[in-house]
Amino acid sequence: MQNPEMIRLTVFLSVLAACALWEWLTPRKVLTQNKLYRWANNLGLIAFNSICLSLFMPILAFEAATRAAQYHYGLFNTLELPWVVELLVSVILLDLVIYLQHLVFHRVPWLWRLHRMHHADQDIDVTTGTRFHPIEILMSMWIKVAFIFILGVSPIAIVVFEIVLNASAMFNHSNAKLPLNIDRWLRRVIVTPDMHRVHHSVIVKETHSNFGFFLSVWDQWFGTYRAQPELGHDKVKIGIPLFQRREEQRLDKMLTQPFRHH
């Protein structure tokens, strides 16, 4: 695979555009903030995080997978599995790692201070799926790299996984209406927008539920699943009580939220 970054960027932009169009055509919830203002800052954060990764990460996921294959590191490089089976198992196991990481970032106080910037968005839409503090992005990449070496994830599998993860994050953060009968069937396997919206409620017991990004089965199996918000999707309030002022959506404010109590 010669240019995985171009493949990822193309898919990212395509899914972003598709979800944005879906939100515009069939919005699920009335937004409370200026959309252009939020989008400018949320998308600006993507650029800032990309710069941080290039400056502070000596190795990224695809390069780690390439080295694991080259030097035969990790579980899958000691087994002889059909490549399709290896790819599917890799995606499933890495998704479990992301679920557990997400759970830990909610449970450990100093990690929660980093992660709550994601929750401080006062509306939830496709751009919320890209809104993470750069320190959390760097920590997540180190965790991913570690498990790539432990599991021996192949380069093709890591490209597929990163595409699935990014696309899922944008899909399940979308402020778009999914027919309830389709939502009911889909959420048996994957995380839907209605399922994930519960996770962004200001109500604490709802904030700390529904941690899955791609597969919904982890929440169902580990007892962290909550079907619907207590107030319903039309009335559920999104965000963090601590950061409800409009200026908290500004990029500089977002970056300092982990270090502030007000």
UniProtKB/TrEMBL annotation:
Residues 88-224 form the Fatty acid hydroxylase domain. The keyword Aminoacyl-tRNA synthetase does not apply. The chain crosses the membrane at residues 6-25, 37-61, 81-100, 141-165. It is found in: Membrane. Its main location: membrane. Keywords: Membrane, Transmembrane, Transmembrane helix. Coiled coil: none annotated. Pfam families: FA_hydroxylase. The keyword Transmembrane helix applies. PANTHER family: STEROL DESATURASE. This is Sterol desaturase.
